[in-house]
Specification:
The protein is mainly alpha-helical. The chain contains eight helices and three strands.
């Protein structure tokens, strides 16, 4: 119950009590006979009982709606709780998913800014920075894509595929002829082309790759079908 309503109820009770008292006083003033004198004793007892009942009701109302006193903690405990809450918030920002997302986004933004400065097709291209940070021949990573990028992943997959093609060609050469006295297998380019073209149409490209990796050897820079059919290809592994 609100304080305003409680105050109205107490005022109403006091008004009713006062009205009863006034009515009883008027009854006492009127002429009375012997019966009235006998009734006066009963009236006095009723008045006392009514007053006691009203007091008890008021006491119950005050006890029921008395304001609850809240015990406030000391300032030291409050400061300690505030410090602990700050520590928890810092840890949540540092290790929480939102904090990690924010830090990753910040790192990506910084890397993107640097990349745009090194990109010659970007409006933010910085020529002096690009010349200062570029790799020279002989440096580690020169002529190769940056590690961790999708270009590097595609390059690794292509390199693995080429190595499989080279190993397949070496296997085909071994099955075509028997090794010579020196233990090396030799075949003509025309024979290898007719056999391997049914497997792959990249015969010459794979031969050049295999020679670059030291798997086989042949004379000349480029082999042509028909013109170089007599060229001997020697398997070295």
């Amino acid at each position: 119950m609100s304080p305003t309503r409680r105050r109205k109820c107490s005022n109403l009770v006091s008004e009713l009590t006062q009205g009863w008292k006034d009515m009883e006083k008027e009854n006492h003033k009127t002429p009375s006979n012997s019966m009235d004198t006998e009734d006066s004793g009963f009236l006095e007892r009723d008045e006392k009982k009514q007053e006691e009942r009203e007091k008890s009701e008021k006491q119950e109302v005050t006890e029921e709606y008395s304001p609850v006193r809240i015990k406030r903690p000391s300032t030291t405990l409050v400061n300690k709780d505030v410090d602990e809450a700050k520590k928890i918030n810092l840890l949540a920002k540092k290790h929480g998913p939102v904090g990690n997302l924010k830090s990753r986004w910040q790192n990506w933004a910084e890397q993107h800014t640097v990349t745009q400065k090194l990109n010659p097709f970007s409006e933010n291209f910085d020529y002096s920075m690009s010349m200062a940070t570029r790799l020279h021949k002989g440096d580690e990573g020169y002529g190769r894509p940056k590690e961790g990028t999708k270009t590097a992943e595609r390059a690794k997959r292509a390199e693995a595929h080429i190595h499989r093609e080279i190993s397949d060609m070496c296997f085909i050469i071994r099955t075509m002829e028997n090794p010579g006295p020196d233990g090396k297998t030799r075949v003509n380019f025309g024979q290898l082309f007719d056999r391997y073209v049914r497997i792959s149409d990249k015969v010459v490209g794979i031969l050049m790759r295999a020679r670059k990796h030291g798997k086989l050897h042949f004379e000349g820079e480029m082999l042509w079908q028909g013109r170089d059919d007599h060229v001997v290809i020697t398997l070295l592994v």
